[in-house]
Amino acid sequence: MSWSDKRRHWQQKLLQLDWYLWLGLVFLFAVLLGLIAAGRQLHSVLNDADKLPIEAVAIKGERLYTSDREIQQALQSLMQRSFFSADVTQVQQTLEALPWVYSASVRREWPAKLKVYLQEQQPIAHWNGDAWLNVQGEVFQAAAPPGLEKLPLLAGPDDMGSEVLTTYQLLESLLKINGFELASLSLSPRHAWHAMLDNGILLDLGREDNMARVQRFIDVYPILAKQSKAIATVDLRYDTGLAVGWDDAQQESR
Question: Could you tell me which residue ranges the POTRA domain spans (predicted)?
């Protein structure tokens, strides 16, 4: 084969390769366009609440204070989204913003349901008059439902809720086994403790040695109870001994 024949042969090969290359590029471009179109269509379907609406929200967990209506109102705008576009994190945060909800977990369940597990606040005491303290010692705000009137009254700085609760539980246990009921306990901004018994006696405990000082009151109470006057306050801030304030008004009314 002459040189000119070889050159023509290779030119034909290159021309053929060029056609293959262009055909391949055209095919690849068509595939890409198809994928883009399909992706847009899928995105439209997944985000179209009319095509994939959320049909139900299943709520689990014991609820005493949070009604179905409150949950429905809280989630009303979020339920306008499709099953896939609904933000479960936002649903969770919205539910946890309800006053009596402590925590919420949310997950999707195919084909059109959200499953929600709620854990409500467990109030253990009134806090500062208009708030609540939960079993974790955390302060929360919520309207007062019926049935919680007999909870103890605790008070103090909001960041000391856990310490106030722990101290209350210790003192309440000590007093109860000795025949007393602790109705309220407060911690002042200067960290001084004041305890009110259900019989109306106020114990001034000071800043330290709460248990020892309450025990001192318990030991002395049988002697104090024999007096003709009613006890109003007992100041236990001394290293030894105590000071008693008598309820003269109550004595006069007898």
Answer: 52-121
Instruction: Work out the burial of residue 168: count CB atoms within 10 Å of its CB; fewer than 13 is exposed, 13-18 middle, 19 or more buried.
Output: buried
- Give the C-alpha separation, 33 to 39, whole Å: 10
**Closest C-alpha to 158, from 175, 141, 177:** 141
Are 226 and 128 members of one domain?
yes
pLDDT in tens, 147-158: 999 999 999 999
CB burial of 37-72 (b: ≥16 within 10 Å; e: otherwise) equals eeeeeeeeeeeeeeebebeebebeeebebbeeebbe
Among 98, 120, 142, residue at a domain's last position: 120
Question: Is residue 187 situated within a structural domain?
Answer: yes
Neighbours of 151 (CB within 10 A): 15
- Scan for tokens 């959320």, then name that residue: 54
Q: Which helix or strand (DSSP H or E) is residue 107 part of? A: strand 101-109
For 113, the token pair is: 């349901």
CATH number of the domain within which 84 lies: 3.10.20.310
Q: What is the pTM (predicted TM-score) of this model?
A: 0.73
Q: What is the pLDDT of residues 95-125, one digit of tens each?
A: 999 999 999 999 887 777 789 999 999 999 9
User: Is the domain of 140 the same as that of 244?
Assistant: yes
Q: How many domains does the chain have?
A: 3
Tell me which residue range forms the domain holding 94. Answer: 56-120
C-beta separation of 64 from 90 below 8 A: no
User: Are residues 160 and 230 located together in one domain of the fold?
Assistant: yes
What's the rounded Cα separation, in Å, for the pair 185 and 250? 23
User: Do 246 and 154 reside in the same domain of the chain?
Assistant: yes
- Strands 202-206 and 230-235: what pairing? parallel
Other CB atoms within 10 Å distance of the CB of residue 86? 21
